[in-house]
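Memo to structure team: turn this sequence into structure tokens by end of day. - J.P.
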Amino acid sequence: MKTLRPGFQIIVGLAGILLAAPAGAAQTGGCGAFAWPIAADLELLAQPRWVKSGATADVAGPVGFRLELKEDASADFVLPPQRRSAPRSQGGTLRFEARPGVYQITLTETAWTDLVQGGQALQPTEFSGVTDCEGARKTLRYELSAGPATLQISNAPGRSIGLALTPPR
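Reply from structure team:
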């Protein structure tokens, strides 16, 4: 059996450590696996304010909601959802007056989100999702300008969904 030269042994050993570190970090899962911290969102989601689909919300500061949903077909979307609705899926809307900056939205369950402003569906600037965080499923960030905005939720499995909405500071 051949032995590796001492210098090469060190390089191989360091490469093994470097390759193993990210894999171990990714396996930690849970709420710490999101791309950014969501602890404040989890606190908001633990004590949400119930609102009906179509409501207008005051988002002067971070707020947690439990949005009552209805069948996607009757959800009064501003624009059709960008993802086709599954049969019997639920949806709803939440309107708010935005100020310029990045908004963070965290959802408790799997659902599709569209954020509409100025008659256009905006694309998130960032997205992160995990399947094993109790209390949160995905979090998104959107760049908004000043003016009315509508958050559209579609393809939700249940009759309500929790969401944390954090405006820019």
